[in-house]
Design a protein that fits this description.
Structural class: alpha+beta
Number of helices: 19
Bound molecules: protoporphyrin IX containing FE
Strand order of the largest sheet: 2-3-8-5
Distance between the termini: 49 Å
Helix content: 40-55%
Strand content: 5-15%
Length: 467
């Protein structure tokens, strides 16, 4: 390849690196990955507050694979090579179970939901939940998403700055309530639907309140919630069970398309139905996993777009002239999720010795994949820090190079829904609004639980509104 074409490249390839399970003897011949030599407490603090600086610095100083101390109790090894990612995504389930079983959501959704279970239990729940999340099933939601977006966008002021993230969250919550519970718009007073919608909105708002976030920390590592979380959840549970019981009694459930109604009819291979507790755990998992992630992903894409005039102009031109709209929208979303993955790191626990390039890790080691580092590899994404949606025109993202939804048997169940929501909302906003950043400086990332969100909530000003 000439240097000219190298400079023009928008997507490249990493040179290969051996990875995967190895036998004990081979494992003992290879060195273990280098360890970050910073006191444990400081590592935890830096990882939680400034993960970007933390992982980029470690990679600069120690190389592609390194081990942390204390970030989760036994300190994961962190890697960001596509071949290492592939080895973990395609591993036998028992050799690399997911670390989400140890997630902060565990005390809230319990140890048996599709997110927190591992092994055969996980596969069973996943099979039951897959059909309603399938691409074709999701296409039917496009109109409902467009309605939720239009109701919200119509209310935004012209000329007064506001944060996009909470507005995106209002849309994604409406979509979740409709898609999961079949609750569209504002249900009648006194119905279980209205009661549930109110308590979910209230608890989600409360969860961003700093004392409530501290209270959440008390739950880490537990199976059952304590304190404030427990009090909030018991109200939520009563209302969820009331709705489940109403739907069980209702005629015509078979004709409803919401996920709760579909799950009421779902049967495992042995013909078993889900119990109320299982239904509650899965429904809550979907609400919690599904709406803040999607909302912040959209907020980040806008945070980038309003600071990259060339990309914004190109998208606006394509959408407003109805030229290859789908391709341009997809490219912008893909680049948004590459440069600002809302979930910056995911992990597996290897149960056998595992090779990661020049190193080997012993059995029972947590191995994390830094989505942030992988998405900013210079060999795969030339000019990784530039926001260049044109990388993706006419090209699909690589399974092990672009992983904002994770991968393998733990790949995000809601990926098709999240993509549909982002497409519909982004297109509606581009068509109707001219947006500008409130301040030219980029927003930095703050970390909340497992997510990475824009520090000011992606603040913008609507400069003009089109009919
Ligand atoms: C842009 C939005 C979203 C992002 C970036 C995202 C990202 C992720 C990631 C990184 C994982 C872990 C994958 C792994 O470990 O390999 C995950 C799992 C999951 N997500 Fe999402 N997600 C999004 C939206 C949604 C939505 C809308 C739903 C459902 C309504 C959802 C439901 C789930 C569930 C149930 C799991 C657990 C799957 C399993 O363990 O089998 N997510 N998501």
């Amino acid at each position: 390849m000439t240097s000219e074409s190298l400079d023009d490249r928008l997507i490249g390839e990493a040179s290969s690196s051996p990875a995967g399970p190895i036998d004990r003897e081979d494992g003992s011949r290879l060195p273990e990955p280098p360890v970050i030599q910073v006191p444990r407490a400081l590592q935890v603090l830096r990882f939680n507050q400034r993960q970007i600086e933390f992982v980029f610095r470690a990679r600069r100083e120690l190389g592609e694979v390194f081990r942390t101390r204390g970030v989760v109790p036994d300190g994961p090894v962190i890697t960001s090579h596509p071949d290492h990612v592939k080895s973990l995504f395609t591993a036998k389930p028992e050799q690399a179970p997911s670390l989400t079983g140890e997630s902060p959501l565990r005390p809230i959704v319990g140890p048996n939901s599709v997110l927190t279970a591992i092994g055969p239990r996980h596969m069973r729940q996943r099979k039951l939940l897959l059909p309603p999340f399938h691409g074709e099933a999701i296409e039917r939601y496009a109109e409902m998403i467009a309605g939720a977006a239009a109701r919200e966008i119509d209310r935004w002021p012209v000329g007064t700055p506001f944060a996009l993230a909470p507005r995106m969250q209002a849309i994604t919550l409406d979509v979740i309530m409709a898609g999961i519970f079949g609750i569209e718009g504002r249900p009648r007073r006194g119905t279980p639907e209205r009661a549930l919608r109110t308590v979910i909105r209230y608890l989600l708002a409360l969860s961003t309140w700093p004392p409530a976030q501290l209270a959440e920390l008390m739950n880490l590592g537990r199976d059952e919630p304590v304190g404030l979380t427990r009090a909030g959840l018991s109200i939520l549970d009563r209302r969820t069970y009331a709705l489940i019981s109403k739907r069980r009694r209702e005629a015509g459930v078979a004709d409803r398309r919401d996920i709760l109604s579909l799950l009421l009819h779902a049967r495992t291979e042995d013909g078993e139905a889900l119990t109320d507790r299982e239904l509650r755990d899965e429904l809550l998992t979907l609400v919690l996993a599904g709406h803040e992630t999607t909302a912040n992903s959209l907020a980040w894409t806008w945070e980038r777009l309003v600071r990259t005039p060339a990309a914004y102009d190109r998208l606006r031109e394509a959408v407003r002239s109805d030229t290859e709209v789908g391709e341009h929208i997809e490219a912008v979303i893909t680049e948004g999720m590459r440069s600002r993955p809302v979930i910056p790191i995911i992990g597996r626990r290897v149960t056998v010795p595992w090779r990661l390039g020049p190193y080997a890790v012993p059995p029972d080691t947590p191995v994390a994949m830094s989505i942030l580092l992988l998405h900013h590899r210079e060999d795969v994404y030339p000019q990784p820090f530039a926001f260049r949606p044109e990388r993706w025109l006419g090209r699909k993202p690589g399974t092990y190079e672009w992983i904002p939804f994770g991968g393998g048997i733990r790949r995000c169940l809601g990926a098709a829904l999240a993509m549909a929501e982002q497409r519909v909302v982004l297109e509606a906003m581009v068509r109707q609004l001219d947006l500008e950043a409130e301040q030219p400086e980029p927003e930095h990332a703050v970390h909340r639980n497992v997510t990475m969100i824009p520090s000011r909530g992606a603040r913008v000003i609507v400069r003009a509104r089109r009919a």
